[in-house]
């Protein structure tokens, strides 16, 4: 399998500056700023409605931000098209798998990974080098046995692994994972955690949106907490879980729901 792009730890890879996104009168993301260091596993957490996924969408440009800037390795990317951002080394998954049900896992992995625009229309459906690369990634993730299985036959957890495989096909230097643990059984969840750790050990930087706090505290080096569209805390897992503002954001929301 292709080695991940090397990185120097301690330097900033992703720099989100005063990011904003509004939908009419609703301010979903409001002056959101944080950094992700090279070689880190950083978590973006917060109560429901905090703006985490919207921030992800703006960073990856699947949604245009209303204001603010996003920098990747010293290059501004918030005005680029999504496939151009992928070419520069940033790839992301989605909460709900975007697999094509009538295609096999192998076909999905190759199809989803292409970022050449119109030029891809003139390529063969699956070139030999793409098949070899995809099979190497499926082997790394331990799912070669389902390579020729239709996407419609997969479990929710298998779809998550297929999405991760497609993401790795672009040789990213940073991956954005949107709720990788959502709907996954405990056994498969441990496998996914192991894969993320192994990828990070090999030099891949990771930014995760996740509600599973046990996973976040076990896996992350750094945690960014959002509430009401803005960052309210930023630090190590131990620091943020004892931060009064974080406790208020979570417990306050729980109390309101109970009321």
Overview of the structural elements:
- There is one protein chain.
- The chain has helices spanning 52-60, 82-87, 105-113, 128-140, 156-168, 186-201, 213-219, 237-241, 244-258; strands at 12-23, 26-37, 41-45, 67-72, 75-76, 90-92, 174-178, 205-209, 222-227, 230-235.
- It has a 6-stranded mixed beta sheet, with helices on both faces. Strands 2-1-4-5 form a 4-stranded antiparallel beta sheet, with helices on one face.
- α3 crosses α5.
- 36% of the residues lie in helices and 24% in strands.
- The chain is of the alpha/beta class.
- The chain has a domain at 12-97 and 172-258: Rossmann fold (3-Layer(aba) Sandwich), CATH 3.40.50.
- The termini are far apart.
- A hairpin with a 2-residue loop joins β9 and β10 (230-235).
Nearest-integer average pLDDT: 86
- Output the structural class: alpha/beta
Largest sheet, spatial ordering of strands: 6-7-8-3-9-10
Largest sheet: 6 strands, mixed
Give the CATH H-level superfamily of the domain at 12-97 and 172-258.
P-loop containing nucleotide triphosphate hydrolases
Which class of the domain at 12-97 and 172-258 in CATH terms? Alpha Beta
Beta strand %: 15-25%
- Our count of helices gives 9
Q: What is the N-to-C order of secondary-structure elements (H for helix, E for strand)?
A: EEEHEEHEHHHEHEHEEHH
Would you summarize the structure shown here?
The chain has a domain at 12-97 and 172-258: P-loop containing nucleotide triphosphate hydrolases (Rossmann fold), CATH 3.40.50.300. Helices cover 36% and strands 24% of the residues. It is built from 9 helices and 10 strands.
